[in-house]
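Table 4 source record.
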Amino acid sequence: MHVLSIACVAAACVLAAGPAIADVRVSVKTTNYDITGKTGTALLQSMDRRGPRRGLLTRAIAQTGYTVSWEVEWDMRGDVCRVKNATAQLAITYTFPRVVNDLSPDLKRRWARFMQGVRKHEERHGTIARQMVNAAERAVSGLSMRNDPRCRKSQAEVKRRVDAIYADYEQRQIRYDALEHRAGGTVDRLVIALARRG
């Protein structure tokens, strides 16, 4: 599961030449929530009670949240406004369950396999978020508009392009979750393997 929060586009007006696009700056943080249980089923029930919220009534096993903040530098020459530099900062937070009681050797092995799959799933959400920000940076790099001496039209166009890319990638996140969580999907198989024999 993933959550998206977008910080405002910050604009700095600068007179200079040459459009530039920087690599996406990414920070990653991992948090945990504690669960207990002596069986796979009990661990799943604990995750269902304590996991990160997914909508109003349900909870997720794990979650990938991210925020994006922008710094955009503008080059204004006469009535032409151009993006000189667009730099995004992507902050990703992964939230995973952590078992706080002892487990039997068999359950410990099943838990390790389960968590390996859960981490892989959430890290894919992080990869999609990185791709989204890279696509947005490419879409606005070098943008130039005439008859825009105060860069208002250009700022609106940057926002429009970024919003369209975010919407596209949000749909990619949703499709990925639907594929992974469907009956017989990767997450479904992980849950079944953890729950077997209790």
